[in-house]
Amino acid sequence: MGAVENIQITDAKRRYSAGVLKYAQMGYWDGDYEPKETDLLALFRITPQEGVDPVEAAAAVAGESSTATWTVVWTDRLTACDMYRAKAYRVEPVPNQSGQYFCYVAYDLSLFEEGSIANLTASIIGNVFSFKPLKAARLEDMRLPVAYVKTFRGPPTGIIVERERLDKYGRPLLGATVKPKLGLSGRNYGRVVYEALKGGLDFTKDDENINSQPFMHWRDRFLYCMEGVYRASAASGEVKGHYLNITAGTMEEMYRRAELARELGSVVMMVDLIIGWTAIQSISNWARENDMILHMHRAGHGTYTRQKSHGVSFRVVAKWLRLAGVDHLHAGTAVGKLEGDPMTVQGYYNICRDAKTEIDLPRGIFFEQDWGALRKVMPVASGGIHAAQMHQLLDLFGDDVVLQFGGGTIGHPMGIQAGAEANRVALETMVLARNEGRDIRNEGLEILRTAAKSCQPLRAALDTWGKVSFNYTSTDTSDFVPTASVA
Amino acid sequence: MRVTQGTFSFLPELTDEQIKRQIEYCLDKGWAVAIEYTDDPHPRNTFWEMYGAPMFDLRDAAGIIQELAACRKTFPQYYVRVTAFDSTHGVESITLAFIVNRPANEPGFRLVRQEEPGRTVRYTIESYAVAAKPEGARY
């Protein structure tokens, strides 16, 4: 990989003669480069077209995501162009994947605007993913220097303050998404909220595509949901919440919905990932000013995160979202119905919750990341999980997570309240057992069955779902460990 | 009704042995255990009375159980909770909190609705016990 054509041309006259040079010759490859502490680092998985040298491909990635165009331009010489050029500094084959390479690129801090994910993404994933000499490209991980991290405000609330506001400690939080997600009237919708919260959940949730449709306008949804929230709070003496989805067609309309959520006394509201980075940062500022927990539903991410060969890994999206400032983030379940192998998912959780994330290849973490005291994001596990998996969920994810059982609450044979109670009893039982030193990973089901003797709703839940599992091999897995499934 | 604040309120009342094991778990983690009590269990009543300062230096579960017994004896009809505090940077907050004593009768909360234009409602949660009697005479 050190061929002559991959060496930067240093003779200025030759370098800047009109015409086309290889990206490596233009200076976008430097195998000896030592990244600076203040550099942004990116790891791409690239699949060059047949006959394209991987080093030249890596240099092209660095070039197209920073200053380069396809031909030499003399106007480079009006700038400190050596500094502005991103530098590919390492290329290595992906283990057991022929034709794929990991390429590491370093970017100088001065390439980026402070506090703008829009600017960051416009550079790093702006052009390069459509670049013809590459069959495919995937952004696997990024290291964001603390100097850059500190230009972001991060989560408006964070895990610690959220728990203090809710007065809920020492256990995962429990939630459920109202189902069916479309078609219920406001009155019927609020009924589900009330039943689930009164039964023992901490949160209920709007789904990603519930906005202001003909069957339920948004004001109706907000009013009936908050009636349910406060009724359940009065019945239990606990703080409760419903993630009011304020996603709308314009920022003006989102602010209008956020204002009503605040007026009605909601502690939390939600947006979908598809509103875009600028809207996310704006609504995060609003949430910070109004003491509102901001729940992020990662709607749409599967279109670019799932396939291993092309797109952006969710671990990178999670890093961007922590900077942009969300309090809750759906990060996978490992054991539920949606994509995600257990260790890869744990990697996402660590990104949300660590003060400093260490390199951890089996979990897909390629860089050390110092979060510079940025608040922590509460990960959310949602999608096809149920009470009989409580020991696995607690063992995989620990206390700082929202476990969301939608079908696993509302589909309970004895009703919604019973479904919620089954989940809460299963959760508290498992936390108690873990704290007592029991081996919950292996004895979990036995612990649940014992608790079910004095809790009929839990018994019914175990009878209904005890044998349900989604045991498929994941698409997005680590390249550094044999892929394991859960069961 | 039953106030279900705290980590274990959906389980049968914990025995002293069970409480002791939870305290041991907290001490093993290096957390400081504290005892708090109140006769105002409103969900937003953050500041329960402290039964002494958090026991940063008491690293013996049996000793904490003795403190708890004394607190229960003094306030048999109060809500009493055990909390654990983690002073690690980035946490510096409570990491476990569970109710270990509660009044025999829990009258619960009234939901007060102040109706406003546009069908908007301003909600207030009011404890029946707190509304009926002054502090110290409620349960």
Could you please describe the fold and organization of this structure?
The complex is a heterodimer of chains A (487) and B (139). Chain A has 487 residues and is an alpha/beta fold. Chain A contains 19 helices and 15 strands. An eight-stranded parallel beta barrel of chain A has the order 5-6-7-8-9-11-14-15, surrounded by five helices. In chain A, β6, α9 and β7 form a beta-alpha-beta unit. In chain A, α18 (440-452) crosses α19. The two termini of chain A are 43 Å apart. The model of chain A has no long low-confidence stretch (mean pLDDT 94). With 139 residues, chain B is α+β, with helices and mostly antiparallel strands. Helix content of chain B is 23%, strand content 29%. In chain B, the strands form two sheets. A four-stranded antiparallel β-sheet of chain B has the order 2-1-3-4. The interface between A and B is large, with 41 and 44 residues.
In a nutshell, what does this entry contain?
The complex is a heterodimer of chains A (487) and B (139). Chain A is an alpha/beta fold.
Radius of gyration of chain B: 17 Å
CATH structural fold name of the domain at 16-107 in chain B:
Ribulose 1,5 Bisphosphate Carboxylase/Oxygenase
| Mean pLDDT over the full residue set of chain A | 94
- Assembly level: heterodimer
Report the order of strands and helices of chain B. HEEHEEEEH
Shape of chain B: globular
* Tally of strands of chain B: 6
Helix content of chain B: 10-25%
| Percent helix range of chain A | 25-40%
Shape of chain A: elongated
Supply the CATH class of the domain at 16-107 in chain B.
Alpha Beta
Query: Which value, in Å, is the CA radius of gyration of chain A?
Result: 25 Å
Tell me the span between the first and last alpha carbons of chain B.
14 Å
Which class of secondary structure composition applies to the elements of chain B?
alpha+beta
Number of helices of chain A: 19
